[in-house]
Design a protein that fits this description.
CATH architecture of the largest domain: 2-Layer Sandwich
Strand order of the largest sheet: 2-3-1-4
Shape: elongated
Strand content: 15-25%
Radius of gyration: 20 Å
CATH class of the largest domain: Alpha Beta
Number of domains: 2
Number of strands: 4
Helix content: 25-40%
Number of helices: 5
Largest sheet: 4 strands, antiparallel
Length: about 150
C-alpha cells in the first residue's frame, strides 16, 4: 500500500490521540469527514493500523520498576525456541520480548512494582521456563523516552 502525505499525517494524528473525532482529524488535514473515515478504514484494512489501545501510567498502577533482562538459551533448537517464546507470551510482567543477535538470545522488558517483586518473578516464573542457560538483568534508573509511535 502506498502512503501519501495525507495518510502519513493521519497516522501521526492517530498515534498522538486516536480518540479524536473524524471531524477533528478532517479539520487538521483539510479533508472531508467521509474522506478521513475512508482513509482510516483503508489503513486498518491493509494492516497499517492494527489496533487501538489505552496507554497506562506505570507509576499510577505500581508497575514502574522496569527491568531489561537478557536471556541466553542452553540450546538453540527450533523446539526450544518455540517453547521459550510460547511461555514468555503467558507472563503478564513481560511487556516486550525481542529475539536478538549477539551474546544473548532475547531481551525482555519487564514491569513490576519493586525489586522484591522482580526477584519473585525471576524465581517463580522466568527461571521455571526450561532451556534457559543464563540471564543478566539491568534496572532502569530513568525513562528518558518511551514512545509507542512509529516514525512514518
Amino acid at each position: 500500500m502506498e502512503l501519501d502525505e495525507k495518510d502519513r499525517k493521519l497516522i501521526k494524528l492517530l498515534q498522538e490521540d486516536c480518540k479524536k473525532t473524524t471531524k477533528e482529524y478532517a479539520d487538521s488535514l483539510e479533508l472531508s469527514k467521509t474522506a478521513v473515515y475512508e482513509r482510516i478504514r483503508r489503513l486498518e484494512r491493509f494492516g497499517v493500523v492494527t489496533k487501538y489501545v489505552a496507554l497506562v501510567n506505570k507509576e499510577k498502577v505500581h508497575r514502574d520498576f522496569t527491568v531489561l533482562c537478557h536471556v541466553r538459551l542452553v540450546q538453540h533448537t527450533k523446539q526450544n525456541i518455540l517453547r521459550f517464546e510460547r511461555e514468555i507470551l503467558k507472563l503478564d510482567e513481560v511487556s516486550e520480548c525481542f529475539h536478538i543477535s549477539g551474546d544473548y538470545d532475547y531481551i525482555l522488558k519487564i514491569n513490576v512494582s519493586n525489586m522484591k517483586e522482580y526477584r519473585e518473578f525471576m524465581v517463580a516464573k522466568l527461571t521455571a521456563i526450561s532451556n534457559i542457560g543464563s540471564t543478566q538483568s539491568s534496572f532502569t534508573i530513568k525513562e528518558v523516552k518511551n514512545s509507542p509511535s512509529v516514525f512514518i
